[in-house]
Amino acid sequence: MANISLPSNLIPADGRFGCGPSKIRPEQVAAVNEIATSVLGTSHRQAPVKNMVGRIREGLGDLFTIPEGYEVLLGNGGATSFWDSAAHSLIERRSQNLTFGEFSSKFASAASAPFLEAPDVIKAEAGSRSVSVPTEGIDVYAWPHNETSTGVMAPINRVHGDAGALTVIDATSAAGGIDFDASQADVYYFSPQKNFASDGGLWFALFSPAAIERVERIAASGRYIPEFLSLANAVSNSRLNQTLNTPALTTLAMLENQVKWINDNGGLTWASARTAESSGVLYDWAERSSVATPFVSNPEHRSQVVVTIDFDESIDAAEIAKQLRANGIVDTEPYRKLGRNQLRVATFTAIEPDDVRTLTGAIDYILERL
């Protein structure tokens, strides 16, 4: 069908609602330009870059109010790389993995390494979440704070299983947008291309003293660990404010600007309230709609940073996304492997709540004309 032209009052000031890479604020791009000739194109082993990494680590520590002894680490590769690093450097014998979507399932697959015992996988159907069960012989309990593929959010509470067992949380789409108590996790890891509005290719993590001790002990055990995947390498390099290989400096610059912006506005409490406001606008809209409904039926399971909305079979959600895209409102399509008649909308920290309100009006306008 022909494109539907939205009136100007129904076009958000910024039409980027993708779940990653996410909306980047103009101020972040300006921050990159400011270091175009002083930092970009220079050695990552020298003071200008190492000082920037140091400021990021300090800013993240402040943002997450990390407990005494915790360290902010970073390494090359995104969360996908970290899953393999965790299999080599964090899991001693066996993990328990909660899976309730695409990305939690991928970590469970990585934890099936041949030198480990088969993981204890507790699966929930897409749109709901599973719960950890303290189990003898488990030394890592792992799940996502937020499942990006389905829009399900899970609480962060330390699992009290065997002595020394670690709680390891995938926070890629949650970090910087959902408040939590950092003391409840031993490892809280994420890539910076979601709430931190940067690009991928790096991972950051909060590590407890117990997690660092585990990493160092496994490294000393003689287990084969590829150098790129070694978390012991990440520990030693992070303490020097560097990475094993050359990092993407523009990614670091945009991240530094975003961390400062969040901290200056009130920190994680402010960011969490902002994403809750934006996601609440969408959930309230879907609850009122005669043709839409939140995909995650239990309100306690609903994400405040990734909203998934199902549509009645009489409505073609793909056509809604197409019409939105034609008007400059992009990346509202559902996660490709979920295969549902739905829209998926990011409500990350950089996204303005008023833009989310305008989006709901745009969807209504299109629905009236389909």
From TrEMBL:
Root EC class: transferase
Q: Where is the Aminotransferase class V domain?
A: 136-329
Q: In which pathway does it act?
A: Amino-acid biosynthesis; L-serine biosynthesis; L-serine from 3-phospho-D-glycerate: step 2/3
Report the transmembrane regions from the record: none
> What's its EC?
2.6.1.52
Q: Which UniProt keywords apply?
A: Amino-acid biosynthesis, Aminotransferase, Cytoplasm, Pyridoxal phosphate, Pyridoxine biosynthesis, Serine biosynthesis, Transferase
Q: Which residues form the signal peptide?
A: none
Provide any one GO MF term from the record: O-phospho-L-serine:2-oxoglutarate aminotransferase activity
Biological process terms in GO annotation: glycine biosynthetic process, by transamination of glyoxylate; L-serine biosynthetic process; pyridoxine biosynthetic process
Q: Which Pfam families match?
A: Aminotran_5 (PF00266)
Q: Catalysed reaction(s)?
A: O-phospho-L-serine + 2-oxoglutarate = 3-phosphooxypyruvate + L-glutamate; 4-(phosphooxy)-L-threonine + 2-oxoglutarate = (R)-3-hydroxy-2-oxo-4-phosphooxybutanoate + L-glutamate
Q: Which cofactor does it need?
A: pyridoxal 5'-phosphate
Q: Which Gene3D superfamilies match?
A: Aspartate Aminotransferase, domain 1 (3.90.1150.10), Type I PLP-dependent aspartate aminotransferase-like (Major domain) (3.40.640.10)
This chain's function reads: Catalyzes the reversible conversion of 3-phosphohydroxypyruvate to phosphoserine and of 3-hydroxy-2-oxo-4-phosphonooxybutanoate to phosphohydroxythreonine.
Q: Which family does it belong to?
A: Belongs to the class-V pyridoxal-phosphate-dependent aminotransferase family. SerC subfamily.
- Name recorded for this polypeptide: phosphoserine transaminase
The organism named in the record is: Lysinibacter cavernae
The major lineage groups are: Bacteria, Bacillati, Actinomycetota, Actinomycetes, Micrococcales
